[in-house]
Design a protein that fits this description.
Layout (H helix, E strand, L loop, with lengths): L4 H20 L7 H11 L3 H14 L14 H13 L5 H39 L2 H29 L3 H8 L3 H25 L6 H13 L4 H18 L5 H19 L1
Amino acid sequence: MEISTLQVILVFLVSCVCGAGSILDEFQTHRPLIACTLIGLVLGDMTTGIIVGGSLELLALGWMNIGAALAPDAALASVISTILVIVGGQDISTGIAVAIPLAAAGQVLTYVVRAITVGFQHAADKSVEDGNLARLDWIHFGALMLQAMRIAIPALIVALTAGTDVVQTMLNAIPPVVTTGLKIAGGFIAVVGYAMVINMMRAGHLMPFFYAGFVIAAFTDFNLVALGVLGTIMAVIYIQIHPKYNKSQQVVVAAASNNDLDNRLD
């Protein structure tokens, strides 16, 4: 697939937003579901972008930065994988398999950029001492732009070369054993990651639903929409029948029963 100059510019801008979002964490633009959908939108295939984003979102569900610990780079993996699938003509499973090493590479790149921005922090301290607030703002924006370029430059390179014979030859040169192993690992990571999130939420009582969903997905031909609707119905039923979420009704019943006793005593 050949992309136009406007699409290349839009991919660059969206990648900047995703890269900045991975540091700001305010609008969650670095999450796979948002990043892949936006890249798919600018490349003219939003459906594929949503499918890739939904699959990668399961992988990255438990990825989050805690303190000084950095999670694998979901933004770089999402943007590059979507470009390879749509522009490079790769299948979705290959794009997801490639996303795993891309996330690890992006994590290393994040460490490098953060080390560089230490100099910006010292410059910001100097600006505060001098009372130069305008320079302080520019330093902050400059450090943020470095994080944006961390995603935008690799995305720009891949967008310009993904459809070429060189990249296709490089992707085809990967041994099938490696790509198959990465695909299997991707499936395991999604399941393990979701189970870790449930465990961290101390929601072990929801594990039967997790296993039930796994069995239904494995032994039926339901698509993601059907599974989503089925999960929503099960969640509504669970909330309606669980005593934890019906305290108000219990109080009303208890209050009503007390009134009956009072009436009888009267």
